[in-house]
Every structure is written in C-alpha cells, then in structure tokens.
Task: structure prediction
Amino acid sequence: MRQSSFSELEYAAKRKVTRRDRFLTELEVLTPWSALLAVIEPVYPKGHRGRPPIRLEVMLRMYLAQQCLGLSDEGIEDALYDSQAIRRFVGIDLGRESAPDATTLLKFRRLLEDNALTEGLFAAVNRNLSERGLLLRQGTVVDATIIAAPSSTKNRKKARDPEMHQTKKGNQWYFGMKAHIGVDAASGAVHSLTGTAANVSDVSQSAHLLHGDEALAFGDAGYIGVEKYTQEKAPQVKWQVAMKRGQVKAMADGPEKDEVKAFERLKAQVRSVVEHPFHVIKNRFKHRKVRYKGLEKNTAQLFTLFAMVNLVIAGTPQPRGVG
Result:
C-alpha cells in the first residue's frame, strides 16, 4: 500500500462532501473497471520501444471523468491540478508523478475511435448490467434527440460541418446531429444507439434500435409506419405508436374518445422512461453541443456517454412499481 500524501490526508479530513466528490465516488463503485480495461488492453501500447506509456487505467479514468464532467482536453488537464476529487478518481498523486496532458488524452481518444473501442465499452457495460439482472430486454422504447452543432460560418473554412444538417421541429430550425436510442422499457438502460445528421427521420433508424428479443416496442407519433422498417429484422415485435394529437382531437366526444385518450396516456407513461437518458446526457453530463467535427467522432463519443448514462441509471434507486 502506498503512503498517502499530506494533501490527500487534508482532503479526506474535510467535513463537506461536494456533489462532484459524491458523484465520482458513486461512479468508482458502479463502473466495471476490469471489463472496460479488457476491451482496450489488446491495442494499448506496451512500451517495448520509446518512452513507457502512461498506465492504461489512469488514461481510462481520465477519459471517463472528462466525458462525465463535460470538459475539454485542456479542461480535464487543468482540473487534475485544481481538484483533489478528480485526482483521487483518476489515481494521480502530483507529489510522485505529473498528470497526463491534453495531447496524451487526445492520442488516447483517437486510439479508441480508430479501433471502434467506445462501442466495445458500451457493450461491456451492458453485459455487466445483464449479468446483474438490470437489463431485462422485455420491451424497447425508441426515441431521438437533436444535439446542436455550430451553425456559424465565421471560421477558417467559412463553412459549416458538412456532415451535420438542419431540421425543423415545430416552428424552430435546428442544426446538428441526432442521437437515436433504444431503451429497455423496464430498467431504462440504453441498449442500442445510432448517430445521424439531424434531418434523418426517426422512423428510418428504428430497425437499428431493436435487439431482436423484445415482443413489444414503443415510439411517439414520429414512428408511425414503423412496421415496414422493422418487419425483416424483428417481425415478432408488436409496435405501440402514439396517435397524432390531431387525430385524437378530431374524434367525437364520447366513451370511445375517452378510452382512446386513456390508452394513449398509458403508452405515454411507458415511453417516458426514454427521457431519463437524455436528461442525464444533456443536463448532468452537459453534452448539449457536439464537441468534434463529423458524425463518426461524435457518434463514438455518444457510445461512451450512454455507457456512463447506463451506470448512472443502474445506481439510481427505482421508485416503487417501476422495473
């Protein structure tokens, strides 16, 4: 066992536990570290030549802390020097070693992207949840959210990101990409994910959001006609798609309309579980805008983010009657 430094002892003696400290402590307990390290270890540099690489676990912890705290490469480097809570989570003692810099983290992220390892991290987390009985795979709820991208052309190339696109939602125009997810109806954990430009319709991605074992699937009115997109992959799935509000409103008042409205409320209650992952990623992880250029890099980041979202959801106590 290594000896604790004076700064660590002083920090451990403080009376107030901050929200960041509490969150990182929970994340430390919830994350299946050995499973995640096993995904990256086969391609991580072994250090047979040149300067020895920084420990894999340190780089993984630094990368995950960056994603969950919504920090840039330079931001997480600075945070390692400013925050004892982050240093303790990452496993860095500045009295014995220097913190990895932003360039080192950039190279680590590119290693993950080039080898599609963020998707592997996402799969490893979901396997762990399945083994713990937290991913039940009984039904699926599908939905999508828009993640904004810079729309300004005041840059070096005088152009927007060509892989992003604009779309209209209601009376408002948005520019960016979409994150399409399939969520376990019982646990609320995300089991499927695709990233597209913002103008791609939700229903066109529905087949990619099913794992194939569910009997029921739920979607909002944007998924009307979804059966023709999923018939080949999952013909057994029975879809429960919301009716358009105009259709319900146009019905004549009476028992039939009341029954339809009651059924639509039940479907909406089931679909509400899909909003929790979006809440965590946008409000807790502060991921409301894309960080990189191009769909590939941003989709790779989304796999990491939703993997961490699943861990947060797994550690959140479920209210009675849910799950």
Q: What stands out?
A: The first strand starts at residue 139 and ends at 148. The beta strands are 139-148, 165-169, 172-184, 190-197, 216-219, 238-241. Residues 295-314 form the longest helix (20 residues). The chain has 13 helices and six strands.
